[in-house]
Amino acid sequence: MTEPVVLPDFNSFGDQAIKGLDNPEEATAATQALLKEDRNSGEPEIHGPGENFLTLERGICREGVWYREAEVKELTGADEEALAAAGTNAFRVFETLLLRGVRTVGNEVMDRKLAGELLIGDREYLVMAIRRATFGDDLEFEELPCPRCEELVDLTVPLGAIPFTHLDDPEQTEFEVPLRTGDTAIVRLPTGEDQAAVMAIKSDNVAKKDSEILSRCVLRIRHADGSETRRPPATSLGMASRKTVLQFLTDTQPGPRYNDFSFTHETCGKEVELPINLAVLFRGM
Ligand SMILES: [Zn+2]
Question: Quick check: 145 and 6 in contact, CB under 8 A?
């Protein structure tokens, strides 16, 4: 029997400027609770050999060549202990998942540096693959209260049903974002290292965290007259420009959109948002 999953507030994930960056923190408490309570409910799964391989959206570049193949593994009891020891910092839990659950990216063995180099979306896709290798493809929900009609719903969600964003061109590393001022921001997408820098900020000040991301990911501002400002201080960007760039970074980041999953509840016919977080992915550990 799987314990009914008590979901966090249905709307608590949807409004963040950078969803991918803010998720792990929100999922922590729930993850830890489930790690404790739900240890024995994982069904044994039989895996074919191909299931532990995946192709990342971006991957890594070595001497001009892109490597996208990655291999994950099934998490063991030792990994479970390491995850429990990662404490309540969600970023650390996420990082531990990657370090323990990913064998290789390209020909390189996973380590902290490599994990930091990967796009946030590739990291989130790897976590999905680790989940698949460990517990199989289906997320089972039992007695989930429908927030629209309050009926309890049993639901099976294959991982493949979670919306997924692809990069138009996996090798494109710089993007142009037109700003309201007539300027153009030239940006790159945030990586694990950027995420770590944001998490290291000991403050709840969201604007400060946004500034950190912007100062790292806005490479240049091209002005209407063709001149460029390299590495503009994030605090010098107008509020509208900051918002535009952050939205672009969120929308363009490839990989699974855990927050964007929804289903139609047959009884009431309503669309129900069901954000998938770490706790949901790894319950049963
Ligand atoms: Zn309903």
Answer: no
